[in-house]
Amino acid sequence: MAQELHRRSQWPLPGAPRARRAELVRDAAEHTALLEALIAGDLPLVEQLLRPHFGVG
Predict the structure, then answer these.
(1) CA distances from 49 to 3, 15, 18, 31, 42 (A)
(2) 34: closest CA among 54, 16, 10, 19?
(3) Which of 2, 9, 45, 54 could form a disulfide with 37 if both were Cys (CB 3.0 to 4.6 A apart)?
(4) How far is CA 6 from the centre of its chain?
(5) 33-56 pLDDT per residue, tens
(6) Any residues with CB less than 8 A from the CB of 34 and at least 6 apart, and which?
């Protein structure tokens, strides 16, 4: 699992497929929204963001 997280956190080289770049930008946006909700203490929003992020309901 740690290896997969590390792999996913690496920005692709300039020649990488656009789909990979889009995936990383989308992941970064999800993480930013999650951190903002955590900082705000908005636990219902944290739960709402985490469910699809982890593929739950």
Answers:
(1) 23, 31, 25, 9, 11
(2) 54
(3) 45
(4) 13
(5) 999 999 999 999 999 998 886 777
(6) 46, 49, 50, 53
Would you place residue 22 in the very low, low, confident or very high pLDDT band (cuts 50, 70, 90)? Answer: confident
Instruction: Check if the beta carbon of residue 24 is closer than 8 Å to that of residue 11.
Output: yes
Q: What CA dihedral angle connects 9, 33, 23 and 52, to 10 degrees? A: 110
Please state whether the predicted TM-score (pTM) of the whole model is above 0.85: no
Q: How long is the chain?
A: 57
- Count CB neighbours of 23 within 10 A: 13
Hey, what are 1's tokens?
């699992």
